[in-house]
Each structure stands twice: as C-alpha cells, then as structure tokens.
Amino acid sequence: MKKLISLIVCGMCCLGAWAQGSIPLLDKVQGHRVTFHYTYSLAKNGADFSPVTDGDVTLEGNAYILEGLGLEVVSNGSTRWSVDREAKELVIETVEKEDLFTNPALFVGAYKEHMDKMHVNASGDAFLDVTLTLDTDTRARFLLTDIVYMDPKGKSDFSLDEKSLSGDYVVTDLR
C-alpha cells in the first residue's frame, strides 16, 4: 500500500515534466493545495495496462489525503493514519525520515531524480496521462484528472482524531 500511495502522489508530482526539463505545473503545486482524481494501472512484461485502482488525492506541502482501494490515508508529514472504514481498522504510524515510501509527498522536491523514468502520454490544464518505468519489466500509468489548485489552508485538515471513530474500531498505534 505504501508503494501504491507513493506512486500515485509521484504521478501527480510529474505534472509538466516533459517541458524542457522544467516542470511548470509542478512549480504551481508547490505553495498550493492541490486536489485530483487518479486512475492507476500496471503493465508487466510488455502486456497491456491492467487497471489497479482509482481514487482522489488532496496534497499540500508534505501532507496528503488519499482515498482509494477502500482506504483513507491521511498524513500531516509526521504521522500517517490509514483507515479501513469497512473493516473498522485504523493504523497509526510515525512518518520516518524523508523517504518516498513513508511520505510520498516529498517527491515534489525530488522529481528531477525520476525524470528519466517518466513519459508523458498527454496533458492539459486539468489532466495528465503519464507512464513511469518502475523496473525493466514493470510500468505504471497514471491518469490524473480534475486537477484543481487552491490557496494553501494549513495542515489542520491533514490529521485524524482517532477518538472520532466509533468504539468498535481496531486501532493499531505503531508510533
């Protein structure tokens, strides 16, 4: 799940990577709150892309909310809450040091390290279709739509009060 979250936010942060090595839409991401819908699919060994999941993301700085795969993942950059409302489970984790798998929003500042692995299939003002080569046999495709840029609102929306959940949730606190 951590890798999927990282890949989704990584796809968002690839906005504009095709333009002469600069990323104007990514520059716009910095200093804004951004929301978008994503569709994520994988292709292995040259096969066609197979759908994996879709969902919605809100991103601001190193904080994010990701809803998809039946999960809601909320991170304020230092703590991550993963909620499965159907199973009534909550996992709380400390976000470790700057690691794309524990805090994928950090890709915003490190996109240049991954530009050689990206291919933009199509783009527009509010959508992006990008393919990211993960290894020699695997490619991930992200279709990001309904991209909206807003003024930042602060990190208060990027936390979860576990006491707000009903008493029948299983809470695993790994902090």
Question: What's the SSE blueprint?
Answer:
Blueprint: H1 2-13, H2 24-29, E1 33-44, E2 50-60, E3 63-68, E4 71-75, E5 79-84, E6 89-94, E7 118-123, E8 128-133, E9 138-150, E10 170-173
Parallel strand pairs: 6-10
Antiparallel strand pairs: 1-2, 1-9, 2-3, 3-4, 4-5, 5-6, 7-8, 8-9
Low-pLDDT residue spans: 12-20, 98-109
What CATH architecture do you see?
Clam
Helical stretch tally: 2
Based on secondary structure, the structural category is mainly beta
Molecular shape: globular
CATH topology: the name is outer membrane lipoprotein receptor (LolB), chain A
**Order of SSEs:** HHEEEEEEEEEE
Q: What is the percentage of strand-forming residues?
A: 35-45%
The largest beta-sheet arranges its strands as: 7-8-9-1-2-3-4-5-6-10
Taken together, the total number of domains comes to: 1
Q: Helix amount, in percent?
A: 10-25%
User: Averaging pLDDT over every residue, what do you get?
Assistant: 76
User: What's the total number of strands?
Assistant: 10
CATH superfamily: Lipoprotein localisation LolA/LolB/LppX
Largest sheet: 10 strands, mixed
Q: Evaluate the radius of gyration.
A: 16 Å
CATH hierarchy class name? Mainly Beta
Instruction: Tell me the distance between the termini.
Output: 18 Å
Give the gist of this structure.
The chain has 2 helices and 10 strands, in the order ααββββββββββ. With 175 residues, the protein is mainly beta.
Structure description:
There is one protein chain. A hairpin with a 3-residue loop joins strand 4 and strand 5 (79-84). The chain starts with a helix and ends with a strand. It has one domain (2-173): Lipoprotein localisation LolA/LolB/LppX (outer membrane lipoprotein receptor (LolB), chain A, Clam), CATH 2.50.20. It has 175 residues and is mainly beta. It contains two helices and ten strands, in the order H-H-E-E-E-E-E-E-E-E-E-E. A ten-stranded mixed beta sheet has the order 7-8-9-1-2-3-4-5-6-10, with helices on one face. It has helices at 2-13, 24-29, and strands at residues 33-44, 50-60, 63-68, 71-75, 79-84, 89-94, 118-123, 128-133, 138-150, 170-173. The chain is 10% helix and 43% strand.
